[in-house]
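Per reviewer request, we include the raw input and output of the structure prediction for the construct analysed in the revised manuscript.
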Amino acid sequence: MPGIWIPRDANMEAAVPIVSMRGMRLPSPNRGEDLQLRVTAPVAGDNLPIVLFSHGFGSSMDGYAPLADYWAAHGFVVIQPTYLDARRLGLAPDDERLPENWRLRVQDAKHVLDNLDLVDKTVPGLGGRMNRARVAAAGHSFGGQTTSMLLGARMKNGGADEDMSDARVKAGVLLASGGKGGGDLSDIGQAMTPYLNSGFEHMITPALIVAGDADFSPLTKRGPDWFYDPYHLSPGHKALLTVFGGEHMLGGISGYEVTETTDESPERVALIQKVTLAYLRQQLLGDSAAWSAISTTPANASDPAGELVTKSE
């Protein structure tokens, strides 16, 4: 049937075939139920770097295929845990674990890193092919907040200032990850996420922050600049990709043709795929040429889809 033309998806031109295993279980006796994972990897190659990906609130290990597939096809092992807030787990709204969900997510992420031996043994064809010294963490929305804490950000609610960072994580990618909480939260934000009060002054691990300039969140009194906070308020080497016209789903990174995407744009997704891949290659593989090349692309395009800036202080 004739319809609107859509550009060819980058994952239809995969660099190498990939294999994905879903439903792997990590025993988690103190969690209430085992932690389920999806692991996606290229069928060939050794010494593969690892990306630990944290989904947004309500999603699961089955989301974000446009990113997971792309990174895997370009030489990364992508591990996606399913956190307790996943809709498909069906936790009751009054479940006693949910108020501490932000903390449990970080603990789950570390539990994955603690059990890479089991991942290595369980996923068919993966044995001995991961490089555990090359680990990055990435996440979208609430998953970005989870990732930020692995990088050194701290939750400051109730006077807490606990360091939950993990030295095994060498770099991060924060996608539409929220900014400061407290007084910057809206009434809705205060009601839904009263615990959200991130501080970024200790987030020293290198990170790429990706934010849409049309992402107006009901959780904050501020505008899209709220999502720039992890870049502006953290020290050290950081990069910020501002996606022009991007709303919270950044063109459709959460899945293929998903109904939750309000700003569907294959061009935006392709930009994010390329920039995140170049960043991961630079940070984990030392591929400075790829990052240098991609850094000039948005500025030199006749109709740029975004803007990329960096800082080192």
